[in-house]
Amino acid sequence: MKKWLGRSLKHKLSLLIIVVALVPLLFLGIFSYNLAAGLTEEKAKISGMNTLRQLEAYLDTMVMDVENMSLFLIGHNGVQEYLKTPENNFVQQTTIINFLTNLAFSKNYIANIIIEPLGDKAPISFKSLVGSDFTDITDSIPNYYDQQPNWWSSVHQQWTFDGVRKVITLARPIRSTDKFKLIGKEQINLDQAVIAKQITQAVLEKSGFVLLLDEENRILAGPSDWETNRPLSHYYPDIGSFEGGSGFLDYGEGSDKKTILYKTMDSGNWKLVGIIPSEEYRSQNRYFLTLTAVAVSVAILFVIIFVIFLIQKITNPLSALTKFLKNTSPDEPMPAIPVKSIDEVGQLIVSYNKLSSRIVKLTDEVKWNESLKKEADMQALQIQMNPHFLYNTLSSIHWLALMNHDTKIAEMVGSLSDFLRFSLNNGQEYCSIEQEIIHVKNYVSIQSIRYPDKFKFQVNVEASIQEKFTLKLLLQPLVENAMLHGLLKRPGEGSISIDAKCDDQGIHFTVTDDGIGIAPERLNWLRTQLSEHPVAHEKERPTKGGYGLRNVHNRLVLHYGKEAGLIVDSTEGEGTRIMFTIPDSEDTVG
């Protein structure tokens, strides 16, 4: 394979373009399939939640109707009078039975309504009650109705003359309307078969189904093969809890994986749970997989054919050019090659023909440039000697001043000599903090002779950091700026101080003066210059006359990063403070 690729540019280009084209196609196919699969599942979830909402609306209406009916029964005068009297009254019983019958008329989900007096009086129901396995919550929690107004039971059986049926009961106490004293109980029995019919008619894909659970996640209604009053965990162990009012979760893995949707009803604590087997998604996803595979295969075949045709068109002129050059003698002048096309390959041949005609001329230019380079090297050597000549001249002036007992001139010339020597520093960019401070003191010494009694200078540098290294010529331009633009423009004597200290974040330098300060507009402009693209700005507006604030800022940013840039703080009429921080790392230690 390696030998096959190395022998021909055509092979390399063909393989490269095919791979470059096929990889996106394959990823597009995979992405499209996953997107379609995700949309299928999302669509099923949305449809399932809509189904649960429709069931919730039906059940909420039924529950609210039953609860309103129970409140109506409590306040009914006939019910109140019957429960308050200790004797049985057949007329009252008949009236109440007729009333209950009319109340439950046309409501197919009501299986029975029972009014149960206290004491020995017989209960009243509109369907004659033969037996029931109903157990009230007060048998286990005697004080339940002190905290709750009513209670929904689980599924239980009830026997009447119509037969046996499963019911769900709303039970609540009946208290007298005048003294609020307990005088009886009422039960409204819902036909579980009617609720289960509504639940089983709900459609969730093809094989999905819906369950109705009570507040303890026991099954109230569902498919016929699901046993009521069983907890959901009996069928789905380790299913976990339902968090929030609604949502979905995945249960199981592989082919047994199921999507479980749930929604807690607004009235009561019942939950509607929809279960969709993942096989429903797979049956739809297989169609998308087949469609995607066919589309990608056709696209791959088309790409391969098109790439081979395109590479042939591109490489044939190059192959002819290679063959022509291969047969040309290197010792003879390069002959012109005929141009057969105007595309990039044709332009390449035209350029080659032009190149061959200029070879002699370029050879002469190379020879001429070599001679110019030697001359430039000689001039650079001469220029390199000039600083040494300057140092020697300043040293002679220094000794002449000392011989004439002119200490001011001697001090000024000595400081200037040290200042220039440090500035050049043999091209080195870094120095110790101690050397940087000495360089600033030389500058201050020269300026103090030029401007006597105009300023005071103070340095506060921790001894532990004086041997650490930093970029040179950082502090002197800041002191010069403070002197020229701050102190010399104010009346009387001013002061300049340099403070340097070290902590975990780095070495912090501060140059402070009590000069005239900076006007707010000028300060905002200066901060903008230091914050927005300092290097590009520097190229657009070069600084004249040595180092300025922007030069120092740009050098700090280029060597130490944006966090090391200058921070300017000034108050007009009070003074200026300029700060910067360099990292205290191995790079700053000598």
From TrEMBL:
Pfam families: HATPase_c, His_kinase. It catalyses: ATP + protein L-histidine = ADP + protein N-phospho-L-histidine. Residues 471-586 form the Histidine kinase domain. Keywords: ATP-binding, Cell membrane, Kinase, Membrane, Nucleotide-binding, Phosphoprotein, Transferase, Transmembrane, Transmembrane helix, Two-component regulatory system. Its EC number is 2.7.13.3. It is found in: Cell membrane. Residues 312-364 form the HAMP domain. Gene3D superfamilies: 6.10.340.10, Histidine kinase-like ATPase, C-terminal domain, PAS domain. This is histidine kinase. It comes from Paenibacillus segetis.
